[in-house]
Amino acid sequence: MLSNDDRAKIEAAVRAAELRTSGEVYCVVAQESGDYREIPLAWAAGAALLGPAVLLLAGVEVSVPDLIDRGWNAAQVGDVASAAARGALMGAILLQGLLFAVVALFAAIGPVRRVLTPRRVKRRHVRQRAQELFLARNLSATRARTGVLIYVSMAEHMAELVADEGVSSKVDAKAWEPPMAALVAGLKRGDAGAGFAEAVGLCADILAEHAPADAADNPNELPDAVIELPRF
Description:
The chain has 232 residues and is an alpha/beta fold. Helices cover 55% and strands 10% of the residues. The protein has a four-stranded mixed beta sheet with strand order 3-2-1-4, sandwiched between helices. The two termini are 14 Å apart.
């Protein structure tokens, strides 16, 4: 996901940033933030449910010939009508099963699944994954609760920033918009290293204001290297 040059730029930016602040900046890049298994099933279920309705709209009908005129009695006509109805029902069930299987298999293809996944669902997964990593990587365990996670999920083309309460309680949420804008701009132009480096520098400006470095006591509590995570 990142080149050696990107990794070097990000690590150097984090190291330089943490000389100015007692806060900790932690960068993570993930291939994808979820498997989205529910998406193919949801599309398949919708296609299966709509299948019979589409047939009706297309003019497909189930009819029974006028058998009374041929001398058949009511009981015989009823039996034929019942058999026709059962046949139509079985046909609809088979059609629904076929549609479900075909759509589910097609929608499960990686690029197709990503296109079919609503943006709000992707955003929810990315935000949830970032929050999980914030806790799992002990960013909430820094001494002054000043850890900041910068998280990028490549498949969704989304980024998330999570700041611990020692910083978030002092900083307006809008203050993080410029770092995130710089990060996204770098990713869009294909220079992830520069995007991360600029975002880290802007985060350091915010952290230095509210959590300045103490030259006598400023331990490095978290790794400076960017973490790369495989597909979820």
